[in-house]
Amino acid sequence: MTTTTGSRRRLRGGGGIHGREGVAGWVFTAPMIVVLGLFLFIPVLMALYVSFTNWNGNGSPFQGGQNAQWVGASNYTSLFTEDGLKRSTFMQSLANNFWYVLLVVPLQTAISFFLALIVSNRFLKGKGFFRTAFYFPSVTSSIAISVVFLFLFANSGAVNAVLETFGVKGPAWFSDSRGLLHLLLQAFGVGDSPSWAQGEVLGRSVWDWLSGPSVAMCVIIILAIWTTTGTFMLMFLAALQDLPGEVDEAAMLDGVSPWQKLRYVTLPMLKPTIFLVTTLGLIGTWQVFDQIYVMGKGAPGNTTLTPAFLSYKQSFTSLQYGSGAAMSFIVFLLIVALTAFQRWVMRDKDAPRRRRRTPGGATAAAVANDQVAGVPAGRTR
Q1: Does 190 reside within a domain?
Q2: 176 and 213 in contact (C-beta within 8 Å)?
Q3: Which of 30, 14, 31, 32 lies closest to 22 in space, CA to CA?
Q4: What's the DSSP call for residue 318?
Q5: If you average pLDDT over every residue of the chain, what do you get?
Q6: DSSP, res 195
Q7: pTM exceeds 0.70 for this model
Q8: Residue 342 belongs to what H/E stretch?
């Protein structure tokens, strides 16, 4: 008895098996920690320092002098408080990216989930072919696909040719700077810049904020959805295949409809995967760059300009590295804030109550079964 107790103490302490496992874990992860520190964490800190200077690219930003004077938070405050072309352009890029995120993230999440449901059907033949076909755009070079879309949506491209067969005159996709919401309001008789939309918010009129994505941005939105749904489809597919079979059996015994099973059983159990997919989509859409670079560099009229591309342009074209770095960190803070808000919205509000009321022996299948049948969690039928 004494020997056993002593052995347990040694295992719980710094020595023994668990102690050696901890040391081995640090040894195996140390190379990656060093690589991430040298090529990710330290450069981020250096960029953060640059965002507080007016470095113009000459010399080292850490030596000070005329080329890298410390300006404090002026690079940040000027983007929100000082009237001028810089603030106007940055706010326009934020508005463009906001509409881009608002359309891309929900659509790519819904389409990828729908495709995962299709390819996970046990009665579907040729599953391997469909999974490969849906995933193939995700592994293709984004630059190559962007070039292909330039040809497809050209004025005399394949898309307009197909529209003409239905008697529809296609727009000049990459030259049309009109916003979709403006076009929709005009269809209902609302003229350009009505009186109720004359007020200004951060240097832009309310009418400009409500322009919606331009016709040119719609092409990039279609491209983004087509190239990202394959990856997210695989995430949903893995989550669907990992669901316990007892849940399906309980739902079948209760005679629930496929829609009830999807709504009350499948979707609640896929909430972690939905959060992962929407978070990755949110981060990716706020960092969109390569498609913008290939498909017009913000043209027409900066209606496809995004903060990520504007940061690059401000740094490497205008040689205002401090201002460009400040734009990048503002986008970073936006991503963090939106992710935290999304986590708060998708939190499980009933989780503490269920843990208190659900009997200790209740399984996930029983809880899901009770939810489908309309029985409150923690009560027996």
Answers
A1: no
A2: no
A3: 14
A4: S
A5: 86
A6: G
A7: yes
A8: helix 321-345
Secondary structure element (H or E) that encloses residue 205, with its range: strand 204-205
CA atoms within 13 A on the CB side of 342: 20
Selection from 154, 194, 190 nearest residue 175 by Cα: 154
Rounded to an integer, what distance in angstroms lies between the CA atom of residue 291 and that of residue 142? 7
Q: Is the peptide bond before 300 cis (omega within 30 degrees of 0)?
A: yes
CA distance 51 to 74: 9
In eight-state DSSP terms, residue 57 is S
Q: Which residues pair with 70 in a beta bridge?
A: 53
Please indicate, yes or no, if residue 336 is contained in any of the structural domains. Answer: yes
Examine the domain organization and report whether 153 and 4 are in the same domain.
no
Q: In sequence order, what are the beta bridge partners of 33?
A: none
CA gap 254, 265 in Å, rounded: 12
CA gap 194, 210 in Å, rounded: 12
3-state secondary structure 62-120: CCCCCCCCECCCHHHHHHHHCCCHHHHHHHHHHHHHHHHHHHHHHHHHHHHHHHHHHHC
Please tell me which of 155-169, 250-264, 346-360 the model is most confident about, judged by mean pLDDT: 155-169
pLDDT per position as a tens digit, 201-237 = 888 999 999 999 999 999 999 999 999 999 999 999 9
Look at the chain and report how many structural domains it folds into: 2
| Amino acid residing at 291 | Q
Q: Is residue 308 part of a domain?
A: yes
Q: Residue written as tokens 């399906």?
A: 248
Provide CB contacts within 8 A for 153, sequence distance 6+.
Answer: 159, 160, 173, 174, 219
Cα distances (Å, whole numbers) of residue 170 to 76, 184, 291:
41, 17, 22
Tokens of 75: 């690079």
Euclidean distance between CA atoms 335 and 37, whole angstroms: 22
**What range does the domain containing 23 cover?**
1-48
Q: What pLDDT score was predicted for residue 187?
A: 83
Task: Give the whole-angstrom CA distance, residue 136 versus residue 31.
Answer: 33
Q: Is residue 56 a contact partner of residue 50, using CB atoms and an 8 Å limit?
A: no
| Contact of 373 with 254, CB cutoff 8 Å | yes
Residue 107 and residue 40 share a domain: no
What are the E-state strand segments in the chain?
Answer: 200-201, 204-205
Residue 250 pLDDT grade (very low, low, confident, very high; cuts 50, 70, 90): confident
Name the token pair of 42. Answer: 């330290």
Hunting for tokens 């829609």 — which residue is that?
259
Task: Please enumerate in sequence order all residues whose Cβ is within 8 A of that of 334, keeping only pairs 6 or more positions apart, or say none.
Answer: 286
